[in-house]
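quick q for whoever's on today - can somebody do inverse folding on this one?? i tried earlier but teh output was garbage lol. tokens:
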């Protein structure tokens, strides 16, 4: 029954990919933490490319970095970006951004700065927190998770 659930299957495949990563827990943790940090930035749509490039440049695990980027997905992105915006807005002591009364280039560019500046600062803060948390979590969990035996999906017999 659960085999037909796309979400359950996707989570299991994600877990399998993470457990089967080659390298020491330190190497996997650095790559995964890099992916988490890039996943917390407001670069939605380019995050996997940025993670692969950064992992290649820094000689980290590319697969672990790409897996870490999936912290922001269509379900979690609105929550993460709202949290980052509020964090940055609070740190900068800015009021909430509101839509302009008249739409002109100047008013829309000001609205862009009113949103992107706090979002950028908040994403930096949460990227550092995410990087540290993911790295130390991977150091602890990677040896434990590698000992787990992952069973195959039950196969159903198809009538001939």
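ok took a stab at it. sequence:
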């Amino acid at each position: 029954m659960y085999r037909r659930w796309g979400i359950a299957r996707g989570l299991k495949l994600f877990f399998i990919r993470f457990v089967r990563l080659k390298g020491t827990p330190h190497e996997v943790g650095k790559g995964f933490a890099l992916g988490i940090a890039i996943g917390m930035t407001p670069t939605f749509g380019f995050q996997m490319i940025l993670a692969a490039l950064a992992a290649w440049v820094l000689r980290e695990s590319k697969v672990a970095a790409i897996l870490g980027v999936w912290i922001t997905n269509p379900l979690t992105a609105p929550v993460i970006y709202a949290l980052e915006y509020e964090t940055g807005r609070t740190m900068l002591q800015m009021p909430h951004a509101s839509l302009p009364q008249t739409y002109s280039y100047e008013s829309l560019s000001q609205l862009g700065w009113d949103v992107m500046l706090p979002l950028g600062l908040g994403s930096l803060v949460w990227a550092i927190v995410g990087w540290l948390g993911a790295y130390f979590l991977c150091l602890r969990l990677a040896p434990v998770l590698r000992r787990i035996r992952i069973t195959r999906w039950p196969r159903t017999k198809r009538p001939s």
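fwiw Residues 25-139 form one domain. also The longest helix spans residues 105-146. so keep that in mind when u check it
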